[in-house]
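Bit of a strange request maybe. I'm writing a small parser for structure token strings and I need a real example to test against, not something I typed by hand. Could someone generate the tokens for this chain?
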Amino acid sequence: MFGHRICLVLFILFFSCKVSWSMEASFSWLPNSESDIDSYRLYYGEDSREYSNFIAVEPNVISGRINGSVAGLDEGQTYYFAVTAYTTGGYESNYSEEIVVQGSLDGGSEDFPSNAGEIPLEAGEITVDHNWSRVQFESSFTQPVVIAKMISQNDTAPCVVRVRNVNGSGFDVRVQEWDYLDGIHGDEVVSYFVIEKGTYELSDGTRIEADMFTTSGTLSFAQHTFKQSYSEAPVVMTSIATYTDEQAVTCRKRNIDSTGFDYLLQEQEANRDGHGQETVSYIAWELSDGTVNGLTYSVGIRKYVRNTFVWTDFQDVNRDAFQDTPYVVTDMLTANGVDPAEIRCRNNSSTGIEVLVEEEASRDGEVGHVPESVGYIAVFGE
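Reply from user aminoacidic:
Good idea to test on real output. This should exercise your parser:
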């Protein structure tokens, strides 16, 4: 036990997990600013905040970060990780934010499906309110990745879409108002996309991937790495696919590039204690227009979206409007504004959709928002 503990200003910026016969978890983080850092300690164990082991990590800075890894972990076992800084005088900092690794949910490159050509994909819409409703897939899936987004604003109370009980035959979905509200919400239209977990490459070279990961207690942004490389930053859609913590929550993203993205589970502004462990599903799809499985699609970005509705055009210079109204999901791709917010939509049509950034008002009545970029995936088929 040390006489006192220094303050550690440490942000986990990178996380990846590779699975072979055993599991290896690799991390990187920003170095401390103190000049007397002797080493870092990467703690881990099978219970939250009860770490049975640690490894010492030299304070060598590579590309602005410290890197450490733990090998020989059991695949399928949940592990908890945290980092401390250790000084030359023998003092140790407080633990960093805890990172949870669940080996059974984050398969590595050896067991991650890679496919070319057609994609196991399903899209649809459902009208729901604050009560749970069940969506039944038309086709069966083995590891479905579900993205569900609201495309209406019939009830103006700020809210999010929640998903739970995802399996090979369907999922549950409902609209959840932020916790400071009464929780009773009118009917809204929710659009959903389902893709079998894996990486894909279309005949024209367009790359897509669908995956999921677990996260817990995020009070600052962490990073997720794509399973394949991209020529440029893809459009990334996320949905929280579990309901472990019943507090309303949204997944914010930033710094999307060709290798991955930063994410944060964000509750209403009045809450300050983070959010419980959830599974986050995501679809990454390169900017493109074309056809997949006989369906016409468009993937694009609308920049400079604030807290008033603006038009997002589906039409590409190489393609006319959709023949009829497509299924569409939208999501915020940036986190320029720190206040909790979601994308709301209205007036979906064959040529486009209106979108805005909707803040909640649990802490104060100010709901103005700085410009964000909003991505969309639209699919149409007879």
